[in-house]
Amino acid sequence: MPPDSRTTSPTRPMRADARRNYDRILAAAAEAIAEQGAEASLEEIARRAGVGSATLHRHFPSRQRLLEAVFRDKVEALCATAADLAADPDPGHALATWLGAVARHAVSNRGLAASLMRGAQDGDPTLGATCHSMITNAGADLLARACRANAARPDVSITDLLKLVNAICLAVEQEPDGAAQADRLLTLALTGVHPAGETAGRRN
């Protein structure tokens, strides 16, 4: 994901070493948030990334900027996954696989969305709406393919499915094996998405 234009000048591309540091910080932050929640220590994130605190703050002047970058990066990854799955010859499997990825994303956030909302006045006011639109559009395309293939009920909307995933993830967010539980519950729930006599379309 390209760096936020407010933290890095768009007219001066980052050097290769700066880009590596940026990417390492993002990866370390995502890992720390998944383990410790959105209040994970910035010093710990810098340590995991193998950079100094000054380097972290050069790329991300505040915790809010870092959290926004992590969230945006995850959303862009989900959209890329949806684009890849559009080539799956089994549209039902593609939709179920993507919803599973959304569930893992939500479980790993551990308070990220709530923290972003609390700090919204200091960050990007359009981030939430933009990311929601990106995810909705990506999922809607997969659902439309599944409906055309009779692999999903025509009265199901992508909003329904995303609410279902969100509810499941909220229920297991504090569990030590939350991702595994979310996957199991989602698999069970998706049997209600498919027409009578059809299977859920998920593969191991």
Automatic annotation (TrEMBL):
GO molecular function: DNA-binding transcription factor activity; transcription cis-regulatory region binding
Pfam annotation, one family: TetR_N
Source species, domain of life: Bacteria
Coiled coil: none
Keyword Transcription assigned: yes
InterPro entries per the UniProt record, alphabetical: Homeodomain-like_sf (IPR009057), HTH-type_TetR-like_transc_reg (IPR050109), HTH_TetR (IPR001647), Tet_transcr_reg_TetR-rel_C_sf (IPR036271), TetR_SbtR-like_C (IPR049445)
DNA-binding region: 41-60
Signal sequence range: none
Keywords for this protein: DNA-binding, Transcription, Transcription regulation
Residues annotated as domain HTH tetR-type: 19-78
SUPFAM superfamilies: Homeodomain-like, Tetracyclin repressor-like, C-terminal domain
Name of the molecule in the record: TetR family transcriptional regulator
UniProt organism field: Planomonospora sphaerica
